[in-house]
């Protein structure tokens, strides 16, 4: 109860809904296993559980992503990604990226995904991420070389969003939207952050979850954080896929 009251008080004071106070006497910080310790089969199973790929009528690719993997993992499971996902959808004439349930991801995955929908040259400054704890700004640029072929810059790309679309997926959508490469269809996104730190309060069992990094888009000079990514075509999340298909068909005609 106290944690709930503190959360409400902090949010009302600073106007940031991302900050949260929790009481967790059993909390144990999660330590991600080192990449070499994860069997390739386990990585493949995890990717297949968080990705759905399908070729729809009209030669449209449908790719639903719940977690955006980082560059290190993408390099490790590259052949699996090409075989299970990319080779199936590369020949399509349009693509729908479904981020309506995407709530987690790695920052290093942002340029990895965006680069598949841009040209190899010239490289593009995609995003800048300021880390408050380190006081360092890292620039994210499109990648000149990738696993497999690029989808290109000419075929239609639509990204589906919902009010639950959170964090790194919001960043990818915002980058592609402002590069004029993708049309966003659905709902205004959650307005999360690219990185959250959970800080213990003294020797208590109270923790404060607070944003520790900030995304700054080089094109707009602004961030999607707190406010979310506004769709180009606003429709309820459950209607977003049908709307995207209709848009692609209309453009084809």
UniProtKB/TrEMBL annotation:
Coiled coil: none annotated. Residues 39-236 form the Tail specific protease domain. GO terms for molecular function: retinol binding; serine-type peptidase activity. SUPFAM superfamilies: ClpP/crotonase. GO terms for biological process: proteolysis. Pfam families: Peptidase_S41, Peptidase_S41_N. SMART domains: TSPc. Keywords: Receptor. PANTHER family: INTERPHOTORECEPTOR RETINOID-BINDING PROTEIN, RETINOL-BINDING PROTEIN 3. This is Interphotoreceptor retinoid-binding protein.
């Amino acid at each position: 109860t106290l944690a709930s009251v503190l959360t409400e008080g902090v949010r009302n004071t600073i106007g940031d809904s991302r900050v949260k106070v929790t009481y967790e006497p059993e909390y144990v910080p999660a330590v991600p296993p080192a990449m070499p310790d994860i069997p390739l089969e386990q990585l493949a199973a995890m990717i297949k559980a968080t990705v759905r790929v399908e070729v729809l009528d009209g030669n449209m690719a449908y790719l639903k992503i719940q977690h955006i993997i980082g560059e290190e993992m993408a390099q490790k499971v590259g052949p699996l990604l090409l075989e299970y996902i990319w080779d199936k959808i590369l020949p399509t004439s349009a693509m729908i990226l479904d981020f309506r349930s995407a709530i987690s991801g790695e920052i290093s995955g942002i340029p990895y995904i965006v680069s598949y929908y841009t040209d190899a040259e010239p490289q593009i400054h995609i995003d800048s991420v300021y880390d408050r704890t380190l006081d360092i700004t890292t620039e994210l640029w499109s990648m000149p070389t990738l696993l497999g072929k690029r989808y290109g810059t000419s075929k239609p790309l639509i990204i589906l969003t919902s009010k639950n679309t959170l964090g790194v997926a919001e960043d990818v959508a915002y980058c592609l939207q402002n590069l004029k490469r993708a049309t966003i269809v659905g709902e205004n996104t959650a307005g999360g952050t690219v990185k959250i730190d959970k800080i213990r309060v003294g020797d208590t069992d109270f923790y404060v979850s607070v944003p520790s990094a900030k995304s700054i888009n080089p094109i707009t000079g602004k961030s999607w954080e707190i406010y979310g990514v506004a769709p180009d075509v606003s429709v309820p999340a459950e209607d977003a896929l049908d709307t995207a298909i209709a848009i692609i068909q209309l453009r084809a005609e």
